[in-house]
Amino acid sequence: MLDIAYCIQTAIWTSSTIDNGVTSSIRDVRHMAIRRDDYTCQGCGCYSSVSKHDLWCGLEVHHADDNPNNDSPDNLVTVCPLCHGILHLDLMLREGNMPGRFLWTEAVSQIHLNMITHVRAVAELLTAELEAGPPPMDHALERAQSLRDKCRKLYAALNELALPAGLPDLQERKDGGLLMSKSPAIFGSVLGEFVRSNPTARERDAVARHLRPLRWLYDWEADVKAKCYADASVWNEEGDWQKNWTFLEQTVLNTLKAQGGMP
Questions:
Q1: Is 61 helix (H, G, I), strand (E, B) or coil?
Q2: pLDDT of 187-231, one tens digit each?
Q3: Which residues lie closer than 8 Å to 216 by C-beta, 6 or more apart?
Q4: Which H, E and C letters describe 86-154, residue by residue?
């Protein structure tokens, strides 16, 4: 679902397809879709819950056919803002709404990267709140600090995964050189135009396969709904986020070590 090139190839890029900032009652059909999907992002699996901070629980709704007027329930997909941004990558980059950087890695999936961003944003938030308050009776602060420090270590390693020195198959095109621009906005915009310029499904698939290792690592501070996720009861329960984090952390660490990205 979150392969960047495949996301780009099928989208209708209009700003009205982004549901950010939508307000509604719980009777809104899109809010019904969030409840139907159990407050869970269908991209990365980020779970939230009813929160006083946000009626939408930090989640958004994506129109699967990119038609913002088609509110049929089977066309609505619950996503977190990070996954929603990937689904509208070049539009979001052009509008300056996706702080972060491109990476190139075969084994660390976009889903992994989005979940790491969520976990770090929550860990940084919880640590700051606990450090600013009275000393907790249990080991909550130590646990939060440990998780925050692990996230920081992962981010430092992931930031070493730069784009390749060249993309020869793409540079044969007249606009190929721009794809190596250091500006994410230019890169994303040209990438979108390049992918969609291939007229047949076969040609688009070939481009998508070539670009499959392309990833986006968000700046964790861009995860502005972290408070909603931190308030979710599942964060403080054994299982789900915490249990999945142990698996996620080890998977990414092993991958980075294999790629020479960890000391």
A1: strand
A2: 787 778 777 777 787 887 887 788 888 999 999 999 988 888 888
A3: 4, 85, 86, 89, 98, 100, 101, 102, 103, 110, 113
A4: HHCHHHHHHCCCCCEEEEECCCCCHHHHHHHHHHHHHHHHHHHHHHHCCCCCCCHHHHHHHHHHHHHHH
pLDDT tens profile 239-259: 556 566 666 677 777 777 776
CA-based max dimension of the chain: 63
Pair 87, 17: CB distance under 8 Å = no
Cα 73 to Cα 141: distance, rounded to the nearest angstrom: 42
CA distance 50 to 54: 8
Name the DSSP class of 69: T
Residue type, 61: V
Considering only CA atoms, which of 57, 45, 165, 179 is closest in space to residue 109?
Answer: 45
**Spatial distance between the Cα atoms of 228 and 82, rounded to a whole number of angstroms:** 14
